[in-house]
């Protein structure tokens, strides 16, 4: 079998007729920094790993078009704008992120055979494994390492990093018991998340979970509100139906509409459950939800709303997706506020694709694998999540108004017969904040909540799919795992003696 060199998913051995030499050398080279010693020689200060060059030599036999096709095919394969994967046949689980460097050669002086060379530059100077190592409870005790749960709720982890360089893992921690604090300590550093002092119970303002659709998958606690006026816009008819379909609540029927209504659909409503004091309604309120908006074809349309009202059905705030574009793929996400002057506070346009590869404007908010968003009311302050941050506004007349009901609406425009393929409310969680009672505190990390710590990523801390870098305790930073065997220790709130479920993922790195 011919030796294979793959670059940017192209097997270069299908273009040339063989590789005659590969120069990878040992490591990437090191640059040492010293400063003069006043007595003799110099004192070592530090060193760093250089970028790395890799050269491959090849032969190309004559073809009918002589070597023209080889030149063109290689030029096309090598033309990248950023480092791409370079993989060699003799080390198939190692990838070098490389770019061509200098001018590749092709000596055509022989009529029968040309020889050439390509030099690649690896800016990082290192390779990483193609496969990601995953250590969890199912393979604990194997070659990747061992996870040990302790009676005090802490977890000891031995990791076997077989690369010859440090690596930066992603650590997923699922809280089996409610929890307020996580510390991850290793040989190269420590990172802390949450609040070391968070108590398990006391008399103070706390948050109470009122509803979680994870335990009500068909949204059965939301009741049909057929014929009830839409709290945000009476132009949206509610004589249709919505129902649970596969992944969440979806549009079912449009229903009849009056002459003044421009759309129709179905609506459901829930009156908030009473808190632990027996009170219904929340001045300070939080809702996390997951939405899906992906059109299967241009021109599909639809409306989705999550509306929060007072006990008399007067709008407090709303979060919605509207696609009225009957020819293209454009939609908008809107935030509505009530009060003395109900209005659309702001909106953001997006394309209803599924964030597929090479999309010019990828839908990174509401695709099949994401969709997390939220709404927060703190007195008169209203906040709506959009692309990594919360957009906030202040409505003074809503300071003491309680959210008491939640409406879910899905509808279709009167003039359109093409409903968007995937418009779904997949999850809704409702929380009341600042409840003053004595009880076991619903801590900041609920049971089954997931904390993801990426030691080498943009979003260092992610909680339940939402970026949460603010949860990282100041002064603690991400760190690496050294080569060889090393240990990590995970600590929780001192009152939590139930170990979490832990999974560590990492790629080996080598010189």
UniProtKB/TrEMBL annotation:
**Which Gene3D superfamilies does the protein's record reference?**
2.40.30.200
Q: Which residues form the Siphovirus-type tail component RIFT-related domain?
A: 18-122
Q: What is this protein called?
A: Prophage pi3 protein 13, tail component
Organism expressing this protein natively: Lactococcus lactis subsp. lactis (strain IL1403) (Streptococcus lactis)
């Amino acid at each position: 079998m011919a030796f294979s060199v793959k670059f940017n998913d192209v097997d270069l051995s299908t273009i040339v007729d063989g590789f005659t030499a590969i120069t990878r050398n040992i490591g990437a080279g090191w640059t040492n920094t010293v400063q003069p010693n006043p007595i003799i020689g110099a004192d070592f200060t530090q060193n760093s790993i250089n970028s790395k060059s890799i050269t491959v030599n090849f032969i190309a036999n004559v073809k009918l078009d002589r070597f023209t096709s080889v030149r063109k095919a290689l030029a096309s394969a090598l033309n990248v704008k950023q480092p791409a994967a370079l993989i060699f046949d003799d080390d198939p689980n190692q990838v070098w992120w490389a770019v061509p460097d200098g001018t590749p050669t092709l000596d055509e002086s022989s009529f029968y055979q040309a020889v050439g060379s390509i030099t690649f530059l690896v800016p990082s100077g290192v390779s990483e494994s193609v496969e990601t190592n995953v250590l969890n409870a199912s393979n604990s005790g194997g070659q990747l390492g061992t996870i040990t749960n302790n009676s005090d709720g802490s977890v000891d982890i031995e990791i076997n990093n077989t690369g010859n360089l440090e690596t930066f893992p992603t650590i997923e921690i699922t809280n089996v018991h409610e929890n307020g604090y996580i510390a991850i300590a290793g040989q190269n550093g420590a990172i802390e998340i949450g609040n070391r002092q968070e108590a398990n119970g006391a008399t103070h303002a706390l948050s109470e979970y009122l509803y979680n659709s994870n335990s009500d998958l068909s949204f059965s606690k939301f009741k049909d509100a057929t014929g009830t006026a839409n709290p945000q816009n009476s132009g949206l008819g509610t004589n249709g139906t919505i129902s649970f379909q596969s992944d969440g609540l979806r549009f079912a029927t449009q229903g009849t509409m009056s002459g003044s209504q421009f759309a129709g659909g179905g609506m459901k409503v829930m009156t908030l459950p009473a808190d632990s004091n027996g009170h219904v309604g929340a001045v300070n309120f939080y809702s996390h939800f997951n939405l899906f908006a992906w059109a299967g074809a241009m021109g599909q349309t639809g409306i989705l709303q999550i509306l929060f009202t007072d006990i008399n059905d007067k709008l407090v705030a709303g979060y919605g997706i509207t696609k009225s574009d009957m020819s293209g793929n454009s939609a908008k996400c809107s935030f509505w506020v009530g009060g003395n002057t109900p209005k659309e506070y702001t909106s953001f346009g997006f394309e209803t694709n599924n964030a597929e590869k090479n999309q010019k404007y990828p839908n990174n908010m509401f695709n099949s694998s994401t969709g997390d968003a939220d709404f927060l009311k703190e007195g008169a302050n209203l906040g709506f999540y959009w692309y990594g941050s919360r957009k906030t506004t202040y409505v003074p007349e809503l300071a003491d108004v309680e959210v008491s009901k939640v409406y879910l609406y899905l509808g279709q425009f009167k003039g359109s017969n093409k409903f968007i393929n995937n418009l779904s409310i997949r999850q809704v969680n409702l929380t009341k904040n600042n409840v003053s009672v004595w009880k076991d505190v619903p801590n900041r990390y609920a049971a089954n909540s997931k904390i993801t710590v990426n030691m080498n990523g943009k979003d260092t801390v992610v909680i339940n799919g939402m970026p949460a870098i603010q949860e990282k305790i100041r002064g603690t930073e991400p760190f690496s795992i050294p080569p060889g065997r090393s240990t990590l220790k995970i600590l929780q709130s001192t009152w939590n003696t139930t170990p979490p479920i832990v999974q560590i993922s990492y790629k080996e790195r080598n010189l």
